């Protein structure tokens, strides 16, 4: 008996080249490449295929750098609805309000700076939270070498929190679901990094999961 895995996720048995019955498979063991991938968090990396041309990727596509330009990059994988994820981003070189890191839905256009649309929620280098082209005072300014923490709850609170070097900003508590930067998230999101002009070269690095400095909040898993 031969098997064919279709794009829908269905496993279709074939006999003499013709399809037989259709099986809906949630978990399959023993069929090698046909086995369904286990759900779970993965290492975030930036997508070299969709980034702005002014973004330079390095470190196995975990570090995104930009000179004095406007644009951004997103991660290849998205954080799915029904999950809670925790991500650490090293900030080797940051600027002010024009340095931006956060989350966005699939509608994000990488030739624009993150935070300019209603489906983009970011933390800026000077400590503001930003969405829909508007800033709101939120936390502390970032310094070179800081670790920006992100807790994204797409399961219960439908919210995002940011922290710096082990401290959640604005007295937020992701484990308790309180004090979020933004709520009412309603779709899968990717991690974003970008800028809106300014001078110098700025960057952000998606930390290796095995090298995280802090523990995820209770109920969250490291990765995306």
Q: Strands, helices and their partners?
A:
Blueprint: E1 2-5, E2 11-15, E3 18-19, E4 55-58, E5 63-66, E6 70-74, E7 84-93, E8 99-104, E9 120-124, E10 128-131, E11 134-137, E12 146-153, E13 159-164, E14 167-168, E15 190-196, E16 202-206, E17 221-222
Parallel strand pairs: 7-17
Antiparallel strand pairs: 1-2, 2-3, 4-5, 5-16, 6-15, 7-12, 7-16, 8-9, 8-15, 9-10, 10-11, 12-13, 13-14
Structural class, please?
Answer: mainly beta
Shape: globular
Say what oligomer this is.
single chain
Please state the CA-atom Rg, rounded to the nearest Å.
Answer: 20 Å
Supply the number of helical segments.
Answer: 0
How far do the termini sit from each other?
Answer: 37 Å
Tell me, rounded to a whole number, the average pLDDT.
Answer: 87
H and E string: EEEEEEEEEEEEEEEEE
Instruction: Classify the helix fraction into a percent range.
Output: under 10%
Poorly predicted runs of 5 or more residues: 3-15, 19-38
Q: What is the number of E strands? A: 17
Q: Can you summarize the main beta sheet?
A: 8 strands, mixed
Strand content: 35-45%
């Amino acid at each position: 008996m031969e098997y064919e895995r279709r794009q829908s996720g269905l496993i279709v048995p074939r006999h003499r080249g013709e399809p037989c019955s259709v099986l809906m498979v949630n978990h399959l063991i023993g069929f090698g490449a046909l086995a369904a991938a286990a759900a779970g968090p993965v290492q975030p990396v930036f997508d070299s295929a969709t980034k702005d041309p002014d973004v330079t990727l390095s470190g196995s596509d975990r570090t995104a750098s930009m000179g004095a330009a406007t644009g951004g990059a997103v991660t290849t994988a998205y954080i799915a609805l029904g999950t809670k994820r925790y991500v650490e981003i090293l900030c080797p070189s940051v600027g002010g309000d024009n340095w931006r890191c956060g989350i966005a839905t699939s509608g994000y256009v990488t030739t624009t700076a993150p935070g300019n649309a209603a489906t983009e929620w970011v933390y800026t280098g000077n400590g503001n939270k930003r969405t829909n082209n508007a800033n709101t005072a939120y936390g502390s300014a970032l310094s070179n070498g800081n670790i920006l923490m992100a807790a994204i709850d797409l399961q219960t609170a439908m919210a995002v929190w940011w922290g710096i070097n082990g401290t959640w900003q604005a007295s937020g508590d992701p484990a308790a679901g309180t004090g979020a930067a933004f709520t009412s998230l309603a779709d899968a999101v990717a991690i974003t990094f970008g800028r809106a002009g300014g001078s110098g070269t700025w960057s952000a690095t998606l930390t290796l999961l095995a090298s995280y400095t802090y523990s995820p909040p209770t109920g969250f898993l490291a990765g995306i």
